[in-house]
Design goal:
The protein is built from two helices and no strands. It starts with 11 loop residues before the first helix and ends with a helix. The radius of gyration is 21 Å and the shape is elongated. It is mainly α.
Amino acid sequence: MAEPMKPRALTYTEMMNGGRQQMDEAEHAREQQLKQRVDALQKDVDQLEKSLEGGSESASS
């Protein structure tokens, strides 16, 4: 039974290459999914801020 992947220290070569060269496909896919989720959340936040700004302007006038 394989153990779940644990983060490990980078080798010297990986550090010199920006730590990216040895990154496997699964890790890359997880990173892409996380970036997409962050982008989607940022859009939600932007929309909420706009609607709050609009609501406070009409309430104060």
